[in-house]
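Treating backbone geometry as a discrete language has practical consequences that deserve illustration. The sequence in question and its structure tokens are set out directly beneath this paragraph.
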Amino acid sequence: MDYLIFIAAMGALIYGADFIINESERIALHFNISHFVIGATLVAFGTSLPEMAASIMAASQGKSDMAVANVVGSVIFNIALVLGVVFMITKSHDSSRDLFAKDSAWVLVPVVVFFVMIQDGEIGKIDGALFLLLMVSYLIFLFSSSKDELGEVDEELSEKFNWSKTIVLLGVGFIFTIGGANFVVDSGTNIARSLDVSEWLIGLFLISFGTSLPELIVSIVAIKKGNIEMSIGNIIGSNVANFSMVLGFSALVSPLVINFEKAHFDLIILAAVSATLLFILANKLYNKAGGIFLLTLLALFIQNALA
């Protein structure tokens, strides 16, 4: 039964992602908003809901390690796996947005703030509130810096655009995507247990990987539709949301204690994938070379965890 649930859940993920991309494109076209901005806001926040649900639940149960590990692992998977796969399968890139000049700071800033906050071994309630302010700052920056990418609303598109239909289909898409991810995690966990895989590996990979599935599926669907900007925007926005909103709300629920001994190598990989993404943006390596860089780091992460 778990195998059937796993397959059905993956199908829900794919169909849900297709709804999200299609309706997000409609909104972008209706308001002449760039695909990057839509990906970094609407799509990113929606696909970050699994991480938020998992970390807040873990924090409420006093499981700080799980709450923080979920975010750290999800960011690593988002960059190394999702963008690694996206760059491996993309064929061309034609962007009107200078991603490095405008958005590289938001790859780096959340990571730096995170490392500064954990120096005392804890992310407290004040830290959580500051993380939420970081999210507000990102939104203000994103829309103020993207004014030159906005234009007049197309009247013909306005007549065809239906907010009610779009909201309903977006809601269905997010429900399918997030619900599918949850069922993939649950059924995958049961399958792993039946195969005698350790609980530690289940927590490290299935929770982080499972909550990153919406980003993976949405980004792949976006790239298949030629929207690499939406894919990259989705990941940058999701990572900002993971650090700011997910850790922010989780810390407000209960202070999060960091075990540096357990997290040492994972934090190194987190810094490494973030630096690699900056390098890729700076040199516009939206191709197989960039994908290989990221997937190599993912392999090191997995190898260390299995050692």
Notes: The domain at 2-306 is CATH 1.20.1420.30 (A middle domain of Talin 1). The chain has 13 helices and two strands. The chain has a mean pLDDT of 83.
